[in-house]
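debug: dumping io for the single-chain case to check the tokenizer round-trip. Nothing else runs in this session.
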Amino acid sequence: METEMAEASQPPISLRGVSKSFKDGQVQALDDLSFDVGPGEFVSLVGPSGCGKTTLLRLIDGLIQPDEGEVLIKGRPPEPTLNMAMVFQSARLLPWRTVAGNIEFVLGLRGYSRKESRSRALAILGAVGLRDFADAHPHELSGGMQQRVGLARALAVEPEVLLMDEPFAALDAMTRETLRGELLRLWERRRMAIVFVTHDIDEAIILSQRIVVLRPRPGRIDAVLPVDLPTPRWQNDPRGQPGFAELRRTLWDRIHAMGREGVALEELAGAFGDASSTDEAPR
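debug: decoded output
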């Protein structure tokens, strides 16, 4: 009982002094990152390419381990549980299973009975508008519909933590807009903690309660900016609000300045024949 109470008082995600390097320490991806994500909070990570956003998600998910510092999920090291799910840039569906079958497969691995899995799969497909496609196969769906299935699969286990790595980046503008709205609607109903990686500044503002801006390699926190705009945003588009334009300009100025800074450093390194460059930068 005491252990459960202690876990309940911990933030869903906590990072303390997290650093990570690759290539035997030659490439430092992240350096001394510390921040928390509260219960039901939607946090986006933005920053120039190579600042370690995807690496940070992989650390939170427990796929890789930090070199220094600690990553905690409800006060414990990350491990595969029902409490955490990941949505990738591509849906990564099993092509030989039906739409519902993809979701049922994951639920079965998590211990649900066949009957429970079917019921939950159909319910979550209804929530993302795909109930009528439950018995279709992935190749019969558009890219946007496949990505909806990927989102439904992650939400079916009702995770407390949802990690999303540019899930809408490869979609057309109209589909991306639709899925943003569906994500916000589902999040406001279920209130899981979300960490969302994106290169799209507008997307980060529309979706988030806070935005963590990372500096280029090694990734460090440049700023943590609150998004104080009216909700629910799936009903009230914030782009017409004065605060939206101001926050967008702040983010753009910060990231654009980092880009200029990075170019200057690369030119300086080139001028002096920097031998430490690598063709495998972290994302």
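debug: round-trip ok. Residues 263-281 have pLDDT under 50 and may be disordered.
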